[in-house]
Amino acid sequence: MKEEIKLKKTLNVLSVCGSGTVTSSMVADKLKETLAEEHNISVTTTESRPTEALNLAQNGNFDFIINTSPLPKGEYGIPIINAAGLLTGFGEEEFFEEVLQTINDL
Amino acid sequence: MIQEKFLFPKLKADTFDEVVTYMGNEMNSKGYVNGLYVNAVIEREKKSPTGLQIGEHVIAIPHAEKDYVNKPLLSVATLKRPIKIYSMIQPEEELQTQLIFLMAVKEPDKQVQMLSKLMAVFQDEELLKELEEVISKEEMLNILKKTNLATVNEGGN
Fold first, then answer.
1. For residue B136, what are the CA distances in angstroms to B6, B22, B40, B73, B145?
2. Distance separating the N- and C-terminal Cα atoms of chain A
3. A17 catalytic, yes or no?
4. Which of B37, B50, B59, B102 is the mutation pick for testing A, counting most A CBs within 10 A?
5. How confident is the model at residue B115 (pLDDT cuts 50, 70, 90)?
6. Which one of A80, B49, B106, B135 is CB 3.0 to 4.6 Å from B86, fit for a cystine?
């Protein structure tokens, strides 16, 4: 039963980049597209700046964070996955492995 | 999204600010971005640098928030000599780049197609190599045309 609920759930992901718009949208779209097409996992994303991320992570309903710019230190309370590989194309596979592992562990 | 007049092969510049000012002023003069765009890009870069190491190449993808953009555009410059920039992923890391993709993005959430095509361009090492070698705007456009970016009009106009 629990498994079923998990599968139907839409994941909430916080996507963080320097300006909170362009780069975070790029990696967020790639994440959404790949998870939907290859793994049938539905994701909604929220884009933010590094300075807003801690507050959002602590107060929002996010499952995990992906980031292309470094995050300020803090207790985020959810997994943080570096999305640099998505942006550069180097380490893209490892990125998705980490994402899938994280989703499994949620 | 891409127009020949915003392609600048073998530009001479010594600093990042100089390159962005030159490219951004051209964009501003044709109404793609407002008068605050150049400064916004330069300030943004200081806080969150945009240098990316793509295999053997280093590119910079400077941009500003959408408030400064009137119409989406990608301006591309290659440089005669590399300039210093910093890494997006590790901002304290200094990089040298000769390839600048200055982006004017209006509505990132609505320009999904454009952003994913842009990302594919950045990641295409063969294309980056070709871009670095060309000396005319026309050649540069021909290379970029292969990416379909030139035909993307999503969110434009």
1. 12, 17, 29, 19, 14
2. 15
3. yes
4. B50
5. confident
6. B49
Distance CA B18, CA B14 (A): 7
- Which residue of the set A11, A13, A14, A17 is catalytic? A17
- Here the tokens at position A36 are 């939907």
Query: Does B116 have pLDDT greater than 90?
Result: no
Sheet holding A64-67, edge to edge: A43-48, A11-16, A64-67, A80-82
Q: pTM of this prediction?
A: 0.90
